[in-house]
């Protein structure tokens, strides 16, 4: 019979056959796909896999710790965390345009990951070993969409820093190529990955950077992170996680409105809740969350998050709205 336990064994065998005594590199994003792919490869080749996690500072509360601590504890993966928070903030300074933000975040990610890859490959070389495999969490739907091709990848040098070796060339290891998302989650459960990782809802690559309407600053990130953590905690407490496709929490950083708290006037920012129901993110409807859950979220955010004095609910379907605000 075909079970997820069989899938694990089968994939571990395949990875061993492909990589042999070689070494591999994997970029962890915090998402379920790269985590499950890395855990499978770790099971197959152990410490001959090195994972890299670029901490861009745009993750939600607890997510970086989940990777650094929980994921590593469960899998034993050899992980290098690159703290690039300052670099990303610097690159994003003064930028409000959504597409511009996406471009900058994508570009900085490639820069940081490329340097980390060069370091890892260089370290292997020093030990007389070659690292030429790159693990990717490509799923079956991605394979179909792209016409089934691939097999190799180049990390191209995007910056003209002297002394860099030629483009890094890798053979791809894609242990999830035959699986759908729900199967990937089951494999993740099989491998003992943290629940919160296995059941993580979709979260955009540019992270909180595209959930701050306006310029991204450290202070704004801190505000949004606090509000978002409250929303996620309350949705989990109400056991609504698996009913909702995802719930972006957005900070309208350039908007202020008047409020009152204690005996003082406030002039703070609004937070937008964007809970949506969807099958594939192509279309979506706004989720009719219970009023008591909304009330609890609103009370907690306005009480606990300084600078936020209003909580609003987005009741737009997609189309015409998109799921994210940027
Ligand atoms: P929209 O906002 O276009 O989002 O309705 C559809 C789905 O895609 C996610 N999303 C992104 N994912 N990089 C990503 O990796 C991005 O730049 C990005 N923008 C949107 C969004 O969270 C939703 O699941």
From TrEMBL:
Keywords: ATP-binding, Glutamine amidotransferase, GMP biosynthesis, Ligase, Nucleotide-binding, Purine biosynthesis. This is GMP synthase [glutamine-hydrolyzing]. It catalyses: XMP + L-glutamine + ATP + H2O = GMP + L-glutamate + AMP + diphosphate + 2 H(+). Pathway: Purine metabolism; GMP biosynthesis; GMP from XMP (L-Gln route): step 1/1. ATP binds at residues 29-35. Homodimer. Residues 2-200 form the GMPS ATP-PPase domain.
